[in-house]
Structure formats: structure tokens, C-alpha cells
Write a structure and sequence with these properties.
By secondary structure, this protein is α/β, with parallel strands linked by helices. Helices cover 33% and strands 11% of the residues. It contains 14 helices and eleven strands. The strands form three sheets. Strands 1, 2, 3, 4, 5, 6 and 8 form a seven-stranded mixed beta sheet that branches. It has a two-stranded parallel sheet with strand order 7-9.
């Protein structure tokens, strides 16, 4: 178990500190925040962005004493640490998606999830100088692939205080929350209490050259369109950015076989650019489900039981009798997957037929027996491919968490195509 594992898996139960671990208000900086500071420092070392993470030097000095580390661990945590620098530095730099050696621009990754924005921006030559994500399992995946642990809750001043100045692009797939707007002026202050307010506040303070926001398609009609109008008013009038009309972008037009529509909102500081931005045209509409299917037969655990199939059939029949279109769906080999989503019928709306299984012995507790018709769920790796994540992307969590993480992610190729247009407009590439 590495120092990083200890910090993430035992959040709130491990705390290492001396007087160097106090913030400006003399409050102890939590260990998971210390880890975020150190990993961000190591990734940005040698650049002006490292200055905001200078406190990392104190933490590294403190942690280098193995006795201090072991003395502060909970009794049930097994710790077999190598010398500190080997353990930490290998974790940070030996990752599938390291920072570009000679970056062309910088960006921050808010509501980072598992880094869909990050892969896209790094592919275009960008360096991430700050990341934030509250979910601990997503943090594990993010760290395993990029080498830094995201900071936590972006709504807190402590987290905001670590965002460096003078980065180029703000990226955020922010969650959509209800805006209470009846009888109000729809201005900056009216967004308080929503996560969009925190994005807007960071834009106001840091004035990046451009921003790239992503949200669900439903934002367009949320509260009869008033939510989106509030967002646009804040960005255009209160923050004084050039913001072209948002567009719905479908991932299936950019090389992945998934019908996934999301609204993209981009903006530019007016001294950088004030007209002429165009969303990208489709680049590849040829991909089908069979193109992302696992090359080898998959585990029997992904195949549905006969009892489960009977339940799905009855459920769909009930809805069809009422004129509803709810229920399972089977994606043909030459078809395009439905949008992968978390919860509800997320996996059942993307069932496939795969007759390559030869051993039908269950490996989990199921009712009935494994079906012989080849009905199965897609695997987490197949969901990763539907979102455009390369096979070198490490899946380091259990299947349940992996489905959640990929279902919540952005589609990398669509993000990258749009980001390329943003960077071109902002004259950053």
C-alpha cells in the first residue's frame, strides 16, 4: 500500500501534522488536501504555477520520516512503505497520461471526474495546473492515470485558494442544479447556492482566456429555458465574456458509437477574441458497436440470468401496454449504443448479444441459470471505449464504480474536437 492509497482510502482517519501543516487561519490542513498539494506541486515544479503549492515542501519533509507516518496510521491499516521518495515519486510520474513535456497552454479541470477533459486537453498539448473532484473513488482513478490527486469540494474557500493565477482555459463539466428565479433579476448573485456559481466565481477572480463548460442536454429546456438564460446572462453581462450561442454536440459524430448529446458552452475573454467561433463539424460517423466490443470472450459474470431476462421482458411489456417506451434495449452489432448513464436502466438500455461464451458456470450468486441466448451487459472497458478513453486508461476500481465513473464522464473525442476550435480561436495553438 502506498502513501497515496493510505490518504484516499482512509480519508478522515489519517492525519499527519506539525506546525507546518496549519493554514493561514491556524486550522490543520487535512491529509488528503496535503496529498493534493504535494502531487500538484510535483507536476507543476519548475513552472510559475508551483508557487501556490509551495507548502508541499513542508509536507514532503514531514512525511519523509517513516516513523511519523507509521505512528499516525489507524491500527487496521497495514503499511509497508518503501523509502518515501520512491513510493511517492513513482506514483506521481509513472502514469499512463503524464503532463506534456513542452506544454502549449495551461488549463484547470473542475468537477474533474476521471479526467475526460484532461485527456482531451493533454492530447492538444495542454498542462493541467489544478484539478478538483469530490468523489473519492473517482480521485483514485484520476490519480492512477494522471499522477495528481484532485482537491476536494470546490465550493470551499480553502479549495479555491489553491487555484493558481494566469492559467489559460477553465474546463468544467458542472452538475446542473435548480435555480430559484421567480421574480428575480437573473444576475450573478441569483446563482448562489448552485455549483454554477462557483464556476462563475472562479472565472470572475482568475479571468482565464477562455472557458469550456459541459452539461446535460436537458439544461437547454430546464425551467422552460430560464436556467440557461441565467447562465448566459452571468457569463456575457456580469463576467463580460464573449459567449457564442451554446450547441448540442453528439458524441456519435466524433468517432464513438454512442448516441450521447450534451450541451457545450464556450466563452472567450474579450481582449482575446470577440467573434467568429464555430463548433466543430462531425469528423467520423462510421463507428458501430462491434468496433468497441471486447476482442476476447468476456467473463460469464456479464451475462444475464434467465430469471433476470424474464423480469426485464415483463417490465418492458408493462410499459408498452401503457404506451411508454421504457425498458431494456439490445444494441445490434452494426448499431450505435444509447447514451450510457448511471442508475435506472443505464446498463439494461445497452444490452448486447454475444454468443462467444462457452462455460456457463456462474461466478456470482444468481437466480435461475446463465442464459444461452448470449444476452449480456457491456463491460466497463466497453463503456470506456464508448466514451473515447484509450485502452491504456487504467481502470483501478470495482465494476460498480467504473460504470458510474464512465457514465458520468464526458466523451473525450467530442470534447477534443471542440477544444481544438477554442484553442485556435484563442490563438493558443
Amino acid at each position: 500500500m502506498t502513501l497515496m492509497d493510505i490518504g484516499i482510502r482512509n480519508k478522515g482517519r489519517v492525519q499527519l501534522f506539525d506546525e507546518s501543516c496549519l493554514d493561514n487561519e491556524d486550522k490543520v490542513i487535512p491529509f488528503d488536501t496535503q496529498l493534493a498539494i504535494v502531487t500538484h506541486y510535483l507536476i507543476t515544479e519548475g513552472t510559475p504555477y508551483a508557487k501556490v503549492y509551495d507548502k508541499a515542501k513542508d509536507f514532503i519533509k514531514l512525511w519523509s520520516d517513516d516513523k511519523i507516518i507509521k505512528r499516525n496510521l489507524p491500527e487496521n491499516v497495514v503499511c509497508d512503505l518503501d523509502p518515501f521518495q520512491q513510493t511517492l515519486f513513482n506514483d506521481v510520474f509513472n502514469v499512463p497520461f503524464p503532463t506534456p513535456v513542452e506544454p502549449k497552454f495551461t488549463f484547470i479541470d473542475l468537477f474533474a471526474g476521471i479526467g475526460g477533459f484532461r485527456i482531451a486537453m493533454q492530447n492538444l498539448g495542454g498542462q493541467c495546473v489544478f484539478s478538483s473532484e469530490w468523489d473519492d473513488q473517482a480521485k483514485r482513478t484520476y490519480f492512477a492515470n494522471y499522477g495528481d490527486i484532485p482537491f476536494g469540494d470546490i465550493t470551499t474557500e480553502q479549495t479555491k485558494s489553491y487555484i493558481p493565477d494566469n492559467f489559460d482555459i477553465l474546463c468544467a463539466g458542472f452538475p446542473c442544479q435548480a435555480f430559484s428565479m421567480a421574480g428575480k433579476k437573473l444576475g450573478f448573485e441569483e446563482t448562489r447556492g448552485t455549483l454554477f456559481f462557483d464556476v462563475a466565481e472562479i472565472i470572475r477572480r482568475k479571468r482565464p482566456k477562455a472557458f469550456f463548460l459541459e452539461n446535460v442536454k436537458g439544461l437547454q429546456i430546464h425551467d422552460k429555458g430560464r436556467t440557461l438564460q441565467t447562465i448566459l446572462k452571468v457569463l456575457r453581462e456580469d463576467l463580460d465574456y464573449y459567449v457564442p450561442d451554446p450547441e448540442i454536440v453528439n458524441a456519435m459524430n466524433f468517432g464513438v458509437p454512442q448516441h450521447r448529446e450534451r450541451i457545450y458552452i464556450v466563452g472567450f475573454r474579450k481582449d482575446i477574441h470577440n467573434n467568429g467561433f464555430n463548433y466543430p463539424k462531425p469528423t467520423d460517423t462510421t463507428k458501430k458497436w462491434i468496433d468497441v466490443r471486447e476482442k476476447d470472450p468476456v467473463s460469464v459474470k456479464y451475462y444475464l440470468s434467465t430469471t433476470y431476462i424474464e423480469t426485464l421482458i415483463r417490465h418492458k411489456a408493462r410499459h408498452e401496454s401503457k404506451g411508454n417506451g421504457f425498458g431494456y434495449a439490445i444494441i445490434p452489432d452494426d448499431g450505435v449504443a444509447s447514451a450510457i448513464v448511471v442508475g435506472g436502466m443505464g446498463r439494461e438500455r445497452n444490452l448486447v448479444i454475444d454468443n462467444r461464451l462457452t462455460d456457463f458456470t456462474p461466478v456470482t450468486n444468481i437466480k435461475g441459470e446463465v442464459n444461452r441466448q448470449g444476452w449480456r451487459k457491456m463491460t466497463p472497458r466497453e463503456w470506456a471505449r464508448l466514451q473515447g478513453f484509450p485502452d491504456s486508461f487504467d481502470i483501478v476500481v470495482a465494476d460498480a464504480s467504473a460504470y458510474k465513473q464512465f457514465g458520468n464522464s464526458v466523451a473525450v473525442p467530442a470534447i477534443q474536437a471542440t477544444a481544438k476550435e477554442i484553442l485556435t480561436c484563442a490563438k493558443l495553438i
